[in-house]
Amino acid sequence: MFRYYLLTAHYRSPLDLNLEALRAADTAFSRLSEFVERHRRACSNVAQGNEIAHWKSQFYAALYDDLDAPRALAVLWCIFADASLPPETRAQIIAELAAVLGLSWKARSRAELVPPEIMALAEERERARRAREFARADALRSALNARGFRVVDGIAGPIVTRTRAP
Fold it and tell me: Quick one: residue 46, left, alpha or beta (phi over 0 = left, psi -120 to 50 = alpha)?
């Protein structure tokens, strides 16, 4: 997260270190990180094509232009928003280009990120949702939110992420 924050300013520009800017960088990095972790696992082949070459050339052009890291980050966000590419391809390109900047997302197991009691609640919520007990599923989602966790229903099952520090 701190590396992401440092990349938001050009190396010749002063960087004002403040809590608000750090929080914004943390939010942005977390958003990209969650997207990459969620979709990159589903993609097994290397993406190719003109659209991908276009984004890569935009990214490297920013870096070749006096190491313009903020513009390179902007290209990552443009890739993130490019709905013409499948999410798996976008995640793969973002991960590849972000690695050039020293940003990486290591695939972590859910057990590493989420305590077992929270995972048990999430699994109980999933069972209630599949049984079409939506009021109970919503109550369990609220309980998870109150404990600082967010549940997103994905194709491979629910994805639980921490919304605030422990």
Answer: beta
Q: Both tokens of residue 145?
A: 């939110």
Tell me the DSSP string of 113-159: HS-HHHHHHHHHHHHHHHTT-HHHHHHHHHHHHHTTEEEEEETTEEE
Q: Are 101 and 91 in contact (CB under 8 A)?
A: no
Enclosing H/E stretch for 94: helix 87-100
**Residues 6 or more apart in contact with residue 127 via CB below 8 angstroms:** none
Q: Are strands 149-154 and 157-162 parallel, antiparallel or unpaired?
A: antiparallel
List pLDDT tens digits, range 99-151. Answer: 999 987 665 544 456 788 888 898 899 999 999 999 999 999 999 999 988 88
Report the C-alpha gap between 21 and 25 in whole angstroms.
6
pTM above threshold 0.70: no
Structure tokens at 52: 């991908």
* Torsion sign, CA atoms 62, 50, 37, 100: negative
Count other C-beta atoms under 10 Å from residue 106's C-beta. Answer: 7
CB 52 within 8 A of CB 93: yes
Question: What tokens does 28 get?
Answer: 């942005």
